[in-house]
Amino acid sequence: MSSITIAELNKYFKEISLNKNTICILGSMNADYTVTTEFLPKPGETVSGSPMKILPGGKSGNQAAAAAKLGAKVKMFGCVGNDSNGKFLLSNLQKARVNVSEVSAVNENTGTTIITVDSAGENTIVYSAGANKSLTKEYVHSVINKMAFCNVVGLCLESPLNAVTEAAILCHEVGITVLLNASPYMNDIPNKLIAACDVLLVNEVELSQLIHLPEKEITPTADWSRVAKCVMEQGFSKTLVTLGSHGSMVIDEGKIYHVEAIEVKAVDTTGCGDSYMGAVLAGLNAGISLYDSAKLAGIVSAYAARSTGAQASYGTANNIANWYAML
After folding, report:
1. Could you count the other beta carbons within 10 Å of the beta carbon of residue 45?
2. Which residues, including other chains, have CB under 8 Å from residue 320's CB and lie 6 or more apart?
């Protein structure tokens, strides 16, 4: 059983907001050019869409905003362009109460994504890295003293791999908990990165690629003892697997838990995985267990699926608690 009472949810949110530890998130920030359609176009097909919206996004920026909106203390590290999109992204992160003082503005276009969302809330995303490519090992070394004070660090693979690996190694060496979202997935994650990773977060597609198991076999009723064994053989002792409308799975040092999904009518699933990651970061930062952080994250991501956009769909602790109390 994975449900949380409203009293428990408010207790978690209080623990998050009162905690003085800092979450550091290093990685990507993008302007999301978003259009909704009745259905996603097939190759070579043209479909009519809604007026385009420019919304704040980028996996790392989304994760930072989600955690900060829950009341966590969050500091963002990364690069944006010295352009209007860069200013737009930083302004929105600041509104979410993310500290962006160490974000570097570079002479590149800010990263962008082109997103199409259908009537069922499914999406396709094309990513153009832009300024995110400027996140280098040299940048990591220039800010590592500022990151060293944090309690938990969030990383993803939307940023250059050598910089992500360097950040993970340096943070792990000083005892900072490293949470890696292996998305977008890439083959042959470096052993040095795996060794420095304390918690892995993947969805069912990424897990399928990681352990070479057909995606259709990765469901709540799968042989998760076998799955856990395969994941741990890859070097990950603690893993979270999001399963969309089927909830998520927690593998914690060989112990396995299923977190049931919160049923909602999905409007747009863009950024839901990032809101899940942000909630887990906030939970772990406040000393909440991995399992309970995953239960919290399931509620936070369900709330995000109810409206369009990534950061634009994220709620504050009060927003989410009030909504959850009405279910």
Report:
1. 8
2. 9, 13, 70, 299, 300, 303
Contact (CB, 8 A) for 302 and 260: no
Tens of pLDDT, residue by residue over 34-45, are: 999 999 999 999
Residue 325 has pLDDT above 80, yes or no: yes
Averaged pLDDT of the chain? 95
Question: Is residue 186 a contact partner of residue 55, using CB atoms and an 8 Å limit?
Answer: no
pTM tops 0.85, yes or no: yes
Answer whether 261's CB lies under 8 Å from 247's CB: yes
| C-alpha–C-alpha distance, residues 160 and 11, integer Å | 37
Q: Which long-range contacts (CB under 8 A, 24 or more apart) does 209-217 make?
A: 209/185, 210/182, 210/185, 210/234
Indicate the length of the chain as a whole number. Answer: 327
The amino acid sitting at 32 is D
* Predicted confidence (pLDDT) per residue in 263-278, tens digit: 899 888 889 999 999 9
> What sign results for the dihedral spanned by CA atoms 189, 190, 193, 198?
positive
Report helix angle 317-325 to 6-18, nearest 10: 170
- For residue 107, the one-letter residue type is N
CA 189/CA 200 separation, integer angstroms: 12
Nearest to 123 by CA among 308, 324, 293, 321: 308
Choosing from 32, 268, 274, 292, which is the catalytic residue? 274
Is 252 assigned a catalytic role?
Answer: no
Alpha helix locations (H) across the chain? 6-18, 59-69, 84-95, 137-147, 161-173, 191-196, 204-211, 224-233, 272-285, 290-304, 317-325
Which one-letter DSSP state was computed for residue 37? B
Q: Which two tokens mark 110?
A: 């800010």
Tell me how far apart the alpha carbons of residues 305 and 45 are, in angstroms, rounded to a whole number. 27
> What distance in Å separates the CA atoms of residue 230 and residue 272, rounded to the nearest whole number?
26
Contact 62, 271 (CB under 8 A): yes
